[in-house]
Amino acid sequence: MTTTDIPAAGVRDARRPAPGDKRPRRRREGAAWVFLSPWVLGAAVLTLLPMAVSLYLSFTDYDMFNPPQWVGLRNYVQMFTEDPRYWRSVGATLGYVVIAVPLQLALALLIALALKSMKRGKGFYRSAFYAPSLLGASMSVALVWRAVFNDGGTVDNLLSAVGIHTGGWVNRPGWALLAVALLTVWQFGAPMVIFLAGLQQIPAELYEAAAVDGASRWRQFVSVTMPMLSPVLFFNLVLQTIQAFQVFTPAFAVSAGKGGPADSTLFYTLYLYDRGFVASHMGYASAMAWTLLLVIGAVTAVLFRTSRTWVFYADEGDR
């Protein structure tokens, strides 16, 4: 470095920012916004703008072919007081959530416990059990499921062989909902992997201490496994409950888009699709969509509120 590169005493180097100069910080913020711009633009154009339009349409009479006509709260009033099929869709959806979510989480936890104790082949079985979660939401698998539970299908033939004649589950109102719920239960791979990760984080010392105190395997499961696994269980419960409220493909495939028999599989999203895209009542469908959003938000808030009494966080103590 030459003497000309050394600034004179009391003279600030022009290459260094002056104290309090905010320009370098602004440059960093500008660069951050440049990198964030695809996400911000996507969120605004693909999420926030459609939500705002949907909220507006929920107060209009709109058939997708003519300009929307403002009707105020008429869609909501009609939905709650004049549409019996709406309430049947609510009942079918709630029944599905109550049946499918607990069965799916119980099976996922059972398989995760079995995999945790395995010495060999854990990777293979974990992949095999996870595979249905990759395929279960597809229309092709739902159609195969319908054929399996239809009259003369595999399940009907197996039950007939032992003297139980059902006539096909998808053709009976009392059994069709259960058939759709079993398809969701079959897709237990994602919660199973999460449960397995949680089980592997439980310290072995806790089980050793419980065994020294004479605790049986069941007592260890109740007093050690479940409390330590409760945050993971809560996460899976919230996630699967939200997904269950939005189920569409299985019901559409099993009932051929009609929600039958006798509206037993007329799930909320299926009826929303029927009102919006089949009957061209997009304003009414928008009102249904916003109602579903509020209900899911309320259910999630209740789950978070009740979690204070049964979810244990090791770094915070009893909540």
Automatic annotation (TrEMBL):
InterPro entries: ABC_transporter_permease (IPR051393), MetI-like (IPR000515)
Principal subcellular localisation of the protein: membrane
PROSITE patterns linked: ABC_TM1
Signal peptide: none
Basic and acidic residues bias (residue ranges): 12-22
Keywords of this entry: Cell membrane, Membrane, Transmembrane, Transmembrane helix, Transport
Region (Disordered): 1-25
Superkingdom, natural source: Bacteria
Annotated compartments: Cell membrane
Coiled-coil region: none
Topology with respect to the bilayer: Multi-pass membrane protein
Record-linked Pfam families: BPD_transp_1 (PF00528)
Domain ABC transmembrane type-1 residues, every copy: 90-303
Similarity remark: Belongs to the binding-protein-dependent transport system permease family.
Record protein name field: Sugar ABC transporter permease
Organism expressing this protein natively: Streptomyces formicae
Organism classification: Bacteria, Bacillati, Actinomycetota, Actinomycetes, Kitasatosporales
